[in-house]
Sequence to fold (467 residues):
Amino acid sequence: MSSHAIDLVAVDKHPFREILRLAVPLILSMTGLVFMQFIDGIFLAWYSPVSLAAMGFAGMSNYLIVSLFLGTAAYASTLGAQYIGAGRSLRAAASTWQAVYFSLGAGVVITVCGVYARPLMGLTHHAPDVLAEEIVYFRIMCMGGWAALLNNALSTFFSARGDTRTLMTVQLGGFAVNALLAYVLIFGKFGVPQMGIAGAALAAVIAQGLCAGALATLFLGRAQFRTEFGVWGMRPFDASLMARLVQFGLPSGFRQFVEMIGWSAFMFYLGRIDTVSLAATTVAFRINGLAFFPVIGLASAAAVLIGHAQGRHMPALSARITKRCMVLAEAWMLLWAVAFIALPHQLFAIFGATDAGNEAMTAQIAAAGVVMLRFVAIYCILDSCNIVYVFALQAAGDTRWTFVATIILYGGFVAALSIADALHATMAAEWTMVTIFAMTTAAVWVARFLQGKWRTIQVIESDIEVA
Fold:
């Protein structure tokens, strides 16, 4: 076993402790991300409900494009974890380099999308005032997409090692910078011109760029990494390893891409109902993120442990890790389900207007949002399965099947949304569809995991192949 590998004996003996040891920094990072999005949403709600509505769809559309490349490059973390578990740590550093090269190429594609922001956003036929701000936000986020991609690619080295504390420190620092810059740029403080939604986008891009710079400095600057992982020596482009990253990572990236198509379609159709429905859904998603993103932190920690276990051919341990992670995730989601039912008015009150001109629309947004949170309370209980089991399947290399299943599931979801739109369905009807859909996907992932075909998938090459 590599000296860098996680102690799997300790993991098997104290699974909850070891999952939480890795997960707490990731949970704090995810909480920081949610807090950042929460703050951005509050600032834009104070600035203008129109800006809030525009950020919801434009932000999701930007992530729709970026997610394909993020998901592919992020698979370097799984490759790295399995290599370290198998005692081949140099290959972990090489995997990160391939993710960096992939991300640099992807950044060009995303920048081009930003050039065509006007025609792309124009397809929505949203209200003219909303559309104008969607174009601005989408363009800036795409032009700066390289920052998020490099931040993601460099993170894979640290997550593969289980060094979640470093990731937490860097990401929380970035979130703090984002919050400060968003306040200054949106409202025009300290002599800076008031930029509104453009300021929110610029703050996010700058913060991501700073995080990428910090991770690059740590990755290349630590003597330990140069000595033990050969980070500089492993920098050459490796066609075979890039092919392996694409083989397993691209289905993962496409899965996220398809998921974002589904959720972007949901936002698109809600925007066709009215601006209030779109803005209320934007806020509801921000609030739901308080429950959702910490579970991603838990699942990410479990995925690291599963990667190490699979690298050492211990699928039974991977199954136990997944089940323990599910227990923790479900307990967390149950707490938030209670909060969504008991405190919906208080949660939406945070996004109240600060001037008389916005009070009427804000009251309508809050009223609609309270109804939405009741739906969220129902589906979030099973939504943890959509996170934990997908992460576990991905970490074991079952990316192709999950991609195909995602196409089928989300294809049906978008078709149902299209039919509902043609029938002029209400906001409540479309949220009912979302709730049913979330429960259905959860059942599919659980069934696939219990089937057990992931146990025999080989993600990394054998020692003989490398030699």
